[in-house]
Amino acid sequence: MLLRFSEQLVDFRKLTFLAASSDPHLLLDLEVAQESFRFAVDLIEFRNKLLDKFFDDPRTEIKEFDSSTGQVRASGDLRIMTNMRQANEAAFKALCNAQKVNKHARDHFYAFAKKEFPKRKLLFVAEEARAAQQATS
Amino acid sequence: MPMEFISSLAGAFFGALAAFLLEALRRKSEEKEKQYEVILSTQAALLSQANSMLSIHK
């Protein structure tokens, strides 16, 4: 699976003013969101390495391959397959959690920013826009 | 003579006070502007991370 993750990171050195603001807890939410994202990315990269290891293994036998979906049915070393299954599950859970935490941090941060800068424009993806984007893709 | 002295002293004092207040106001507005920039860049980073995850999760 070829993937490229966002390299944009929250710069906590510039966010120190939040500690003295009306909502210092926001710093913690941002930290948790960023770390959850990093953790999910690390797990997905690890899972991809395991997948490469599995296909490079001489004992791996590809039984079916669907080029349109990329789905593969294969047999091979049980140890690698078990590790791969565990990594898959962990990566999926980490991704779901990171998405949930990211949404919470974004909503919390938006509410804070709106309160601090009521007349300024802010970045926000409305639920409707997000749902419409998902429906069209 | 003392009256002139007092008025010039008061003038100098209020002039300095006005300059100080204006400078404080300018610094505060500059600081607020920097905070606004940081808020936008933080929002952009969070949205970009969310977008990355959305593209994997499909």
Account of the protein in words:
With 137 residues, chain A is mainly alpha-helical. Helices cover 59% and strands 7% of the residues of chain A. A two-stranded antiparallel sheet of chain A has the order 1-2. In chain A, strand 1 and strand 2 (72-75) form a beta hairpin. The model of chain A has no long low-confidence stretch (mean pLDDT 87). Chain B is built from one helix and no strands. Chain B has one helix spanning 2-57. Chain B is rod-shaped and about 85 Å long. The model of chain B has no long low-confidence stretch (mean pLDDT 90). The interface between A and B is medium-sized, with 37 and 22 residues.
Summarize the structure.
With 137 residues, chain A is mainly alpha-helical. Chain A has one domain (17-136).
List the helices and strands and how they pair.
The complex is a heterodimer of chains A (137) and B (58).
Chain A: H1 25-56, E1 61-65, E2 72-75, H2 78-116, H3 127-136
Antiparallel strand pairs in A: 1-2
Chain B: H1 2-57
Shape of chain B: rod-shaped
What proportion strand of chain A? 5-15%
* Broad structural category of chain A: mainly alpha
- Strand tally of chain A: 2
Biggest β-sheet: strands ordered side by side in the sheet of chain A: 1-2
- Tell me which protein chains meet in the greatest interface and how many residues each side has: A-B, 37 and 22 residues
Task: Using brief descriptors, characterize the structure shown.
heterodimer; A: 137 residues; mainly alpha; two-stranded antiparallel ribbon; 2 strands; 7% strand; elongated; B: 58 residues; 1 helix; 0% strand
